[in-house]
Structures are given as structure tokens and as C-alpha cells.
Amino acid sequence: MAVAGANPGHAGSETISSSYTSTAPKACRMIGKPSEEDGDTTRVCPGKSGLVVLINEGDLREVVSVGRNREAAAREPAAQAWFGPFSSTGDRVEWRAAGGKPFAIIQRWQIADNSEQDKRGGPVSRAMLAVTRLPPGDVCHVAYVDVAANPNANELARQAADDFARDFKCGTDTVKTIGQSGRTTSLTKR
């Protein structure tokens, strides 16, 4: 149980919980066929409480958004939130909910670090957790947590979701780096 009194915007105490859904390609519906030119793909994955997760991949960068349907998710600010380096997401979404109503998702991202090469000569991937606010209101990134710099990254991401997501103003408020900033969070800048 989390106490919302820690967040001035949410008085009293409430039960906040986590549940999970898959965004693995086999759990989702592919929209159209991958582009022959560059392999761009779009998939729609079942979420919680009538929401869907939209994942668009183009130019080796993914964007993730949430909405009541694919069209609504595609109109959200999160559908335009891409990172400069190549990026991809994990296959699992954590849904944070209060009173059974989801208000944020947490998803693991891999961001390519072109300053360092792996054994195959490609960029090293660095892990980050992104916290995204959900409707009502706009869907957008709220916070980033560098996984390597923070051994308690999952707890920090949950706390950020619980404390900031519901009152975050997309397009006005600045996405926060939570915990220790590290190489991965520096890569999120465009």
C-alpha cells in the first residue's frame, strides 16, 4: 500500500498496485505489413481497463503510446516521443493503478550508446525505465530512470509514477530524471 498523502495533489490514502501486460509481437496485432523500404512496423497490444498500447518502430527507433484505440493513441504526445539514438522497448509493461484505474505505465527501454561498441561492432545498449502518464488527459513521458546508475530503478520508477504522473502537464512540465543521472539518461536528449 502506498500513501498518497506524500503527493499533495492526492489527499488521503489509497491503494496503488501494479499489474503487467505483454507487448511482445506474438501478444499484439500487427497493423499492415512491415515496410519493404525500411522495415517500419506498427503493432497494437492489449492493455488494462480498455486501453491499448501502440508501438511504432521506424528507423530503428520505437515510440510507445496508450489510448482507447489505435487512432487515439497515435494522437497523443507520447506517439511523437522518440530518442535521438536507436531505441527499443522491452516486452512487458507495468501498469500503476489506484482504485483499479491505471494512471501510468513503466516500460524498460534500450537506448543505443554510439560512443561505445559491443563485441559485434554495434553500439552498446543501455537500459532505462520510462514512466508515462495515462488518460484522463494527455499521454506523455513523465520521468526517466537510468537502470545502471540506480540499483533500485524499479522502485524509483514506481515512486515517480505515483508522485508525478497524475498531475503532470504534458507540453508544460519537464520530464524528470529520477535518482542518479547516468549515461543512459544523458542519451535521451534529442
Structure summary:
The protein is mostly beta strands and 190 residues long. The protein has 3 helices and 10 strands. It has helices spanning 70-74, 153-165, 183-187, and strands at residues 16-22, 29-30, 41-46, 52-58, 61-67, 87-98, 101-117, 123-133, 141-146, 176-178.
Descriptive account of the structure:
- The radius of gyration is 16 Å and the shape is globular.
- The chain is built from three helices and ten strands; from the N terminus they run βββββαββββαβα.
- Strand 3 (41-46) and strand 4 form a beta hairpin.
- The longest helix is centred in the last third of the chain and has 13 residues, at 153-165.
- The protein has 190 residues and is mainly beta.
- It has a six-stranded mixed beta sheet with strand order 1-6-7-8-9-10. It has a four-stranded antiparallel beta sheet with strand order 2-3-4-5.
- It starts with 15 loop residues before the first strand and ends with a helix.
- Residues 1-9 have low confidence and may be disordered.
